[in-house]
Amino acid sequence: MGQSRFFYNHHRVFTSTIYILQNLSKEQADYCMAHMKLYADPKSGNVIKDAYDYEEFVQVLFNQ
Questions:
Q1: Which conformational region is residue 47 in: left (phi greater than 0), alpha (psi within -120 to 50 degrees), or beta?
Q2: Higher pLDDT, 7 or 57
Q3: Whole domain around residue 20: which residue ranges?
Q4: Which of 12, 27, 33, 57 is the least buried, fewest Cβ under 10 Å from its Cβ?
């Protein structure tokens, strides 16, 4: 996955479904959304709608 702008969009720790679909091929987007956890706000624990925790995804993906 060479699209580093996808993973580090504005220094947020999550990304949205729309951003994933706009910036990746369908195959890449399907893979990412199937393997990323939904993002939960660390303070409240509430899951943010259509948000994926890509910071954790990148750590898991590259630390294997």
A1: beta
A2: 57
A3: 4-62
A4: 27
Please state the domain count of the chain: 1
Cβ-in-10-Å burial (0-12, 13-18, 19+) of 48 comes to: middle
For residue 4, what are its two tokens? 């580093």
Query: pLDDT for 28-60, tens place per residue?
Result: 999 999 999 999 988 999 999 999 998 888 888
48: its two tokens: 């943010």
The CATH number assigned to the domain holding 23 equals 1.10.238.10
If we measure between CA atoms, which residue out of 55, 54, 60 comes closest to residue 24?
Answer: 54
Residue 22 has pLDDT above 90, yes or no: yes
pTM of the model: 0.71
